[in-house]
Design a protein that fits this description.
The protein is α/β, with parallel strands linked by helices. The protein has 14 helices and 9 strands. Helix 6 links the parallel strand 4 and strand 5 (150-154). The protein binds pyridoxal-5'-phosphate. Pyridoxal-5'-phosphate (PLP) is lined by residues 56-58, 82-83, 85-86, 128, 154, 156-157, 178, 180, 191.
């Protein structure tokens, strides 16, 4: 096995190049008509009233918390089984992340643990739809309403997911998405927030652009007029170049989902009968967005498997080692091994296999064979 197998490859091409040429031909490179067009297409796909283009999911989460009124000293409940950005966004808003453990069969935040973590300081919950499988949003919404707290979904893995008939953003107050280089649609860097609330939409539009009332596109359309700074804001506005890259991908989103699904299901079928591999379980017939094809390898041989695959030119990733055990979080907040045993178990067992829409079948076959050989050798 000498051909190097990519873990991921984007599928940007002529349609995106043409879309960027059109932006170059116009007067506005920054936030303008192309961003609006993308926001409409994205909101419509998700069945939400508003979408706000931003520069990253991390920035989106930060603004979503601010829009809810989260302030220094508040607490936000979230999962340790995610990328660190979920928790650092809470710190950026000045609040304290309060982790709760996850469901053993999905890796998603365990909604039955939320109530015992709620205090008088709790202002919001950030569930993460891990790998592309949605959390129990019906239950999370019910608990949040009962306690008068907000819900911000980290849907960085889950543009296409559906559970109980709901998409991200339909039960949360807001959902945040990532268009980072390896995500399901990408502009290299980028993100969006969706919401059904007109009030939150208006706040987020101010917050993403310095808290000021007018931008370059307004000047281009209407000439100069004085602007005001109404609130403290940030610099998180998506630009027309990013939006141009994203628009053509919206047309391929379902086709690409089907291609990833096929690979993910064939991975699972190929490992059927191999007892050393488990997969996160789908609940209630949920549509899995399959951002990642992630297996759990019990017995803590995971690092050996990754090293062995890597020797054979096969890249595998770890999504994720739990946030509370990173140096920063354990040093700052005193977290230690044993605090969230389910997340820690998954953190020790998790291994993500190469997956992208145009992945050749021969690559998938090579990954499967190498995994099986490796697991048998470990015994
Ligand atoms: C990628 C990712 C983020 C951060 O997205 P950016 O757009 O890079 O800020 C946040 N949460 C999760 C779960 C992610 O996978």
């Amino acid at each position: 096995m000498k051909t190097r197998i990519p873990f991921f490859h984007h599928d940007l091409g002529e349609a995106e190049l043409e879309a960027i040429r059109q932006v170059f031909a116009g007067p506005i490179l920054t936030t303008g008509a192309t961003v609006l067009e993308f926001e409409r297409a994205f909101a419509s796909y998700l069945g939400c009233r508003h979408a706000i283009g931003v520069t990253s999911c991390t920035g989106g989460l930060h603004l979503a918390l601010l829009a809810l009124g989260v302030k220094p000293g508040d607490e936000v409940i979230t999962t340790p089984m995610s990328f660190v950005a979920t928790a650092t966004a809470i710190l950026q808003a000045g609040a304290v992340p309060v982790f709760i453990d996850v469901e053993p069969d999905t890796g998603n935040l365990d909604a039955t643990r939320i109530e015992s973590a709620i205090t008088s300081k709790t202002r919001a919950i950030i569930p993460v739809h891990l790998y592309g499988l949605m959390c129990d949003m019906l239950k999370i919404r019910e608990i949040a309403d009962c306690h008068g707290i907000g819900v911000v979904e980290d849907a960085a893995h889950c543009i296409e997911g559906v559970r109980d008939g709901y998409r991200p953003g339909q039960l949360g107050d807001m959902a945040c998405f990532s268009f980072y280089a390896t995500k399901n649609i990408t502009s290299g860097e980028g993100g969006a927030i969706v919401t059904n609330s007109e009030e939150l939409d208006a706040k987020l539009r101010l917050l993403r652009h310095h808290g000021v009332t007018k931008g370059a596109a307004d000047r281009e359309r209407n000439g100069y007029s004085h602007w005001d700074m109404e609130v403290m804001g940030w610099k998180y506005n998506m630009d027309n170049i990013q939006a141009a890259l994203l628009l053509p991908q919206m047309k391929r989103i379902e086709t690409n989902l089907a291609l990833r699904n096929r690979h993910a299901l064939l991975y699972q079928e190929s490992f059927a009968g191999i007892e050393k591999i488990h997969w996160p379980t789908s609940r209630n017939g949920a549509v899995h967005a399959h951002h990642l094809s992630t297996a759990w390898v019990p017995g803590y041989h995971r690092d050996q498997v990754i090293n062995e695959l890597s020797k054979q030119g096969i890249p595998a990733m770890v999504n994720y080692r739990p946030i509370h055990l990173t140096s920063y979080f354990s040093n700052t907040f005193g977290y230690k091994v044993g605090d969230f045993p389910v997340a820690e178990r998954i953190g020790n067992e998790t291994i993500s296999l190469p997956l992208y829409p145009a992945m050749p079948d021969s690559h998938r076959d090579a990954v499967v064979q190498a995994m099986i050989d490796c697991l048998q050798a470990l015994n």
